[in-house]
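Intended use. Records like the one below are meant for learning the mapping from a protein sequence to its folded structure. Do not use them to infer anything beyond what is encoded.
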Amino acid sequence: MSTLPDPAPETAAAPAAPSAPAAKPGSEWLHYAVRNPKLIIGAVLVVILLAVGIVGPMLLGNDNPNEYVGPQAAAPDGTYWMGTTTFGQDVYAQFVHGLRATFLVGVVGGAIAAVIAMVVGFLAGYRGGLVDEILNMLTNIVLVLPALAVLLIINAYMGVRSVAVQGLFIGLTSWPWAARAIRAQTFSLRTREFVDLARLSGSGTWRIVFREIAPNMSSYLFMMFILLFGGSILIASSLDFIGLGPTEGVSLGLMLQSAQQWSALQLGMWWWFIPPGAGITAIVGALYVANVGLDEVFNPKLRES
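Structure written out for the chain above:
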């Protein structure tokens, strides 16, 4: 896992002329971003998989990927590009619908976790005192809870589960580490001169946080979301594989679960379990490779090494 970079100090050090220093880091980051192979490879792979997940189901003309459409256990050919399952389901149709569901649970879970982490982290880091102690205690409580066990219990007792609901519960349990990281960075920024000037001008807490502190942590927050995004996909895939995924639709994790349940490996039906496994690995791997590239772009020390 890549280490998140410190917020750009040069932007924060010149509050009197914010437009001039803001342009230099932005153009500098873009200069190094387009020359970073890790970032380019990771981003291109994610975009390709996302495009397949969005466009693929539209081109099929069939909204039910679990429909029995062909011969049973057929190997890949010109008609069924990824073969069929034991029951005659099109593996390619399941794969493209599964990509869409996998990205959706990653976005929902990662976005919810990021929002909670920012609210808790910014408020605790900026206000300090009793507010910090209460929020820090809440963060520690959620942090020590066995998140996977909680998700197992919740999913087991829910009759109907959807991808959005799964992402919601993942987001509600995966934010503490990010909140603690944001809190630590906010502590270091709240004593800067530009924050003191905003405070003296009468700006409120949230105005200072989102107009003065957050912009100086933009790269940090973006990389944090990537990590939460990838983590949500891994957690969702784990739940799907043990049979606690969505009860409606299909996902890459559910494809793996079905392949394992119906002995695809023993039957030599490699086309059933390799595509979803490769899809999960490609998405998460590309996200983390892109994150490493962003770390090198935003962090001058890594950039020079």
